[in-house]
C-alpha cells in the first residue's frame, strides 16, 4: 500500500491529557480492510479512537483520510470528512427510540447506501424494536443501534471502540459478518479490541499497542497460538486461556453480557 491509496494514514500521532502523554508517536496505515488494535488496559486505545475522530486534540503528528488532513478538525467536521465512530459504551440517548436515533441522520443518508431501512434490513432485530427507547434495549441491540447510526454517515472509514465488549457469542457473530460485509463493499474498519479471539475474527491484521505506539503486527490467528506473545503484549497469563482470551484484566463475559 502506498501513501496515496491508504484510506487512513496516521503519522507520529501525539496526544494525552494535560501533561500526561498517552499517544507517543503512533503511526499506522490501512487501506480498505479491517484492522484491529489490541493492547493491555490503559495503553491508549480509546485515546487513539478519540483522537482520530476529533474528540481529543492531537498535540503532534498527522491524521490523513484518503490523503486529506483531518487532525485539528472538530468531531462533526471529521465525520463529514469521512470517519464514523462507534464509541465504547455506545453513547445512545436513553429517552429516544431506535427509530428516533436513526431518523436524526436519515436526511443526510437519503439516496446513499446506508439508510434507516438498510440498517433495519441488516439488523432485523432492531427493526422489531424500532419503537423501544435506548434504555430498554439489550446490550446487543444497543451495539447494533450504535453501529447502524455510524453506518448512516456513509463514510469510507468506521472506527469501533471495543464493539464486542459484553456481547454474547451470537451477537459477536453478527458483528463479524457486518464488518466483513462493510470491507467487501469498500469501507475500511478500524476496531479496537480487548478480546483477542474477537479481534482475530474481525480483522485480518492485528496491531499491538504498547505505551502509546504500535509495537507489533500480526496476521490471521498468529497470536492465538502464541501464549508467550499474548503474555508479552496483552498481559494475559502464560497458561492456556479459556474460550475467550481477553487482554489485561477485563472479564470476557462482561456484566451486560446478553443473548439478544
Ligand atoms: N479523560 C482522561 N483524563 C486523564 N487521563 C485519562 C483520561 N482518559 C484516559 N486517561 C488515561 O490515559 C491512559 C490511556 O487510557 P485509554 O482509555 O486510552 O486506554 P485503553 O487502552 O483504551 O484502556 P482500556 O482498555 O482500559 O479502556 C490511561 O492511563 C488512562 O488513565
Automatic annotation (TrEMBL):
Per UniProt, the keywords (alphabetical) are:
Amino-acid transport, ATP-binding, Nucleotide-binding, Transport
> Which terms in the Gene Ontology molecular function aspect does this entry carry?
ATP binding; ATP hydrolysis activity; branched-chain amino acid transmembrane transporter activity
Instruction: Please note every region of biased composition (Basic and acidic residues).
Output: 249-260
At the top level, the lineage of the source is: Bacteria
- Please name the GO terms of the biological process aspect recorded for this protein, alphabetically: L-amino acid transport
Instruction: Kindly list the residue ranges recorded as spanning the membrane.
Output: none
Under the heading Gene3D superfamilies, the entry gives: P-loop containing nucleotide triphosphate hydrolases (3.40.50.300)
Q: Does the keyword Glycoprotein apply?
A: no
Q: Specify where the region named Disordered lies, as residue ranges.
A: 236-260
- SUPFAM superfamilies named among the record's database cross-references: P-loop containing nucleoside triphosphate hydrolases
Q: Which residues form the ABC transporter domain?
A: 8-236
Fetch the PANTHER family from UniProt.
ABC TRANSPORTER ATP-BINDING PROTEIN (PTHR43820:SF2), HIGH-AFFINITY BRANCHED-CHAIN AMINO ACID TRANSPORT ATP-BINDING PROTEIN LIVF (PTHR43820)
Entry's family note: Belongs to the ABC transporter superfamily.
UniProt-recorded name of the protein? Branched-chain amino acid transport system ATP-binding protein
Q: Give the source lineage, highest ranks first.
A: Bacteria, Bacillati, Actinomycetota, Actinomycetes, Pseudonocardiales
